[in-house]
Amino acid sequence: MVKQLVKLRTRPSRDSKTFVLMLDYIDASGKRNRESLGHADKRKAERQRAQKERELRMGIVVPERMRLSELLADSRERTRGQVRETTLTDRDEAMRHLIDAVGDIDVQEVSHRHAEVFIQVRLDAGNAPATVNKKVSALKRLFQLAVLRGQLETNPFRHVTRLKAPARQVRVFSEDECDNLLKAVREPYRADGPDWELLVVVALCTAMRRGELLNLTWADTDFDRLTVSVAPKQDTKHTWEWRIKDSERRTLPLTREVAELLKGRRTARATLHPYIFITASRHQQIQQRRNAGRWTLTDGRCPVNNFNRGFGTVLERAGIIGGEFHDLRRTCLSRWLANGLTEYDVMQLAGHSDFSTTHRFYLAVRSDLVDRARTATMAVMGTDFGAHMARAPVFG
């Protein structure tokens, strides 16, 4: 006879006048459990006992009870070092906003309705649809990992559809704006600040991201081949750990003029350290923080203080309203596309892991394309079109 793993027990109520049924069993970890069923219906209790028996024999683990904040902490600990710190930060923020919207409830209680509430609360708070989509994606992945770990049976965000959001407009600096930028960065800059001229020139030449540029070392350059490499950095005596976005190593071209500018800067510097765009004083400050254990992987993403404010000053000098440093990258990629490189070529040089990123964000309509379209329209409609419009009556 097969041994019964789950037994029914009775437990008297506090007034000793009634009783409730309970399940008595030992789980897979060897821990004894006594689970109250909350009723005295023996037929219903037997069905529940049989179900629990089947679960134990099949090795089914009942998802553990935890609140949303506990799920986040558990997931963070499990994935630390496996995903980028920015990804963890995005998940932290999304979960915090979910808790603000629905409360720190048990994860087993989260449903599609809570997802709808979350979306509406974020929209009411002023988040753009694209921002809400990003938060939903972070939560959807977080809950899916919980499903894979056996902490949830189903993903409550699995049927949430993306909000319709207008395509992001790609800001590309015009030729005149680039000339003004180059004139602005040739002006004297703070001795302890970054070399803005070198940063802008190399960014326009290579389409490198801010973090890639600021973590560039002299060892990454090859002046004979006129190339520069984007490579991760190890935690050594003079360099801090830094990881490439999407983990894509790549080699990028330098023009001879840019290579000469780089070599000239290296020769002119009295104190040499590994980094091209980190000043000696800033490198010393970072080393002190590293020795004191106050430097993190996140700090290495932008090791220059007040970077955005500094570039804002550059834009102001150039007479450019709006814009950001990443627009230099977009400008370079758009130039490559306009001068014959295929989208696949640009995808490889840009370090995009997904072709849609190249296609969606960097296929900007350039002024020369607009001019060609205008010329073609005039050729089709003929010169008489303008005269006809001049003679047409005006209604108003």
- Give the spatial strand order of the biggest sheet: 1-2-3
Main beta-sheet strand count, sense and barrel state = 3 strands, antiparallel
Name of the CATH architecture of the largest domain: Orthogonal Bundle
* 3D shape: elongated
Q: Could you tell me the strand content as a percent range?
A: 5-15%
Query: Helices and strands: which structural class?
Result: mainly alpha
Helical content band: 40-55%
Instruction: State the separation between the terminal residues, measured CA to CA.
Output: 96 Å
Mean pLDDT, all residues? 85
Protein name: Site-specific integrase
Pfam families: Phage_integrase
Organism: Anaerobaca lacustris
Domain Core-binding (CB): 66-147
Chain-wise SSE layout:
Elements (H helix, E strand, L loop, with lengths): L5 E7 L6 E8 L5 E5 L5 H17 L9 H12 L5 H18 L9 H13 L4 H20 L26 H11 L10 H11 L3 H5 L6 E2 L4 E4 L19 E4 L2 H13 L11 H12 L15 H11 L8 H13 L4 H8 L4 H7 L5 H15 L2 H8 L5
Antiparallel strand pairs: 1-2, 2-3, 4-5, 5-6
Helix pairs in contact: 2-3, 3-4, 3-5, 6-7, 7-12, 13-14
Name the descriptors.
single chain; 396 residues; mainly alpha; DNA_brk_join_enz; DNA polymerase, domain 1; CB; 8% strand; hpI Integrase, Chain A; DNA integration; three-stranded antiparallel sheet
